[in-house]
Amino acid sequence: MGDVLELQQVTVRRGGRNIVDHVDWSVSEGERWVILGPNGAGKTSLIQLAGARLFPTTGNVTILGETVGKTNASELHPLIGLASSALDSRIPGSERLHDVVRTGAYGVTVHWREKYDEEDDMRARGLLATMGVGELADRTFASISSGEKKRVGIARALMPDPEILLLDEPAAGLDLGGREELMGSLKTLAHGDFAPSMVLVTHHVEEIPAGFTHVLLIKDGTVLDSGAVDDVLTSENLSDCFGIKLDLEKTGERYTARAHLS
Ligand SMILES: Nc1ncnc2c1ncn2[C@@H]1O[C@H](COP(=O)(O)OP(=O)(O)OP(=O)(O)O)[C@@H](O)[C@H]1O
């Protein structure tokens, strides 16, 4: 059994259909998972389930030993760091980056009357530096680029020192240089001594950072395959998942995929 996250026969039903369909999935401590699949496959729904932000219609979700629905989800939230564009869009543009990260300790998006000590300040600045945006700490959220926003969002998600870090399409919208720099930061994070268990959602094999250990392939709400990266990430599986014949190549710890030329 996964000691971090366990989904047992989990179904989410919306609009008369199963958008997550009888999913079994287990994440153990120290594993770093990629959820890969086409548009509408159910990736965001899975990450929302993993973050106790969405409840299953049927089946069981267990996070850090607590069964969702039988425990107070708001007590689980500080243990789960979540970075997503949806969360970024709730941060006021006038908020300074230092506060954007500090407020992550309380799971709020606007600095109000929370109390922070010197250790919190140092941690926020340290996390911004780890994500390569330390020199921007006093800038406002509205004044930074979309790539920088992604980095700040991850620093914010790390602020409460979570047991699990969930990243919903962290490289979406980044240019090639921005994506590769982010891949480098995530590789460093993944190899860190105190790295949390991680789950990253993407549509693209090029956005799988080095150091990620497992892949869950999803299509139409159903798991096609899941397990160690090298076992699951094959041209055949990828072609099946995206509905087009693809050739997968591995260079070092990174992947690329192209349409198969016949
Ligand atoms: N509240 C809802 N009511 C009806 N359908 C929904 C609802 N929420 C999500 N869906 C549908 O469920 C499916 C899975 O959505 P989800 O956002 O999890 O997919 P995704 O794999 O993250 O997609 P994308 O890659 O495009 O972001 C989609 O077809 C979506 O339209």
From TrEMBL:
Alphabetical keyword list: ATP-binding, Nucleotide-binding
Keyword Iron annotated: no
ABC transporter domain sequence ranges: 5-245
One Pfam family in the UniProt entry: ABC_tran
Xref: PROSITE patterns: ABC_TRANSPORTER_1 (PS00211), ABC_TRANSPORTER_2 (PS50893)
Signal peptide segment: none
Molecular function terms, GO-annotated: ATP binding; ATP hydrolysis activity
PANTHER family from the UniProt entry: SKFA PEPTIDE EXPORT ATP-BINDING PROTEIN SKFE
Name of this chain's protein: ABC transporter ATP-binding protein
Species name: Flaviflexus ciconiae
